[in-house]
Amino acid sequence: MQDIKVDFYHALEAATTAAKEAASILTVYAKDRSKLSIDHKSQNDLVSQADRDAEQAILQIMREKTPDIAIVAEESGTSSDLDQAQLAWFIDPLDGTTNFLHGIPHYAVSIGLVARAGTVLIPNTEPLAVNTPIIGVVYDPNRQEMFSAIHQDGCFLNGQRVNTSQSRHLEDSLLATGVPFRDFSFEESYMRGFNEAIHHTRGIRRLGAAALDLAWVACGRFDGYWEMGLAPYDVCAGTLLVREAGGIVEDIYEQEDWPRGGNIIASNKHIATAFGEMIRQQL
After folding, report:
1. Sequence ranges of the domains in the chain
2. Which Gene3D superfamilies does the record cross-reference, listed alphabetically (predicted)?
């Protein structure tokens, strides 16, 4: 157990500053994508110079403003001291790379901060029982929408408090998802759940940016969202956004404290049980 006093607002300011700086780089590249160098990390897993430059801008700011916090970044890897770290940033400089490379204006910068179980965030309070996202920022440069959240302080969109939807039944709910695109090992079980969802909900959207799917659950545009095979930096910030907006976010397999393994289900509290049962029964 370790008593660490977290300056939440300083950390949030660092994350929002970094997200906007990264977004400005993405916006410049978006004006002429023909000159972008693009590499394939694996099947359908792309990285461009825009990703790399945006990430470097984030890393520079975070190292200057929060030098004692470990970092997990999509393109640069992991801090060497992560195993001993009580706090760690999870950074995705461009969530929705494929959209970006095809000129589809739906992508975001995602930055989340996780505190290890046992950490005392505020003196004279109980330590965290489990690993917990405590800061979350998702910035959509195309709509100039900044989603942000602090542990136990609510979720905000451009400074205005937001909450999850009030939909109480699956048949009245609009869901978001992400189909298998890189790892197809769970394709059959995923498609069974998808088939159930299309028959028992108002509809499904697949927009191609997990961080924004979660942000849109947080502000009530979607009633629920699920996906499998993601990475922790895809879902870290969005997990906190939904939770602070009054929703529920869990690991689909109910094995992790937050969906670090990338198998995520999120929704408002009213449909959470029915939604979870519908998806999990097909696994």
Report:
1. 8-161, 170-281
2. 3.40.190.80, Fructose-1,6-Bisphosphatase, subunit A, domain 1
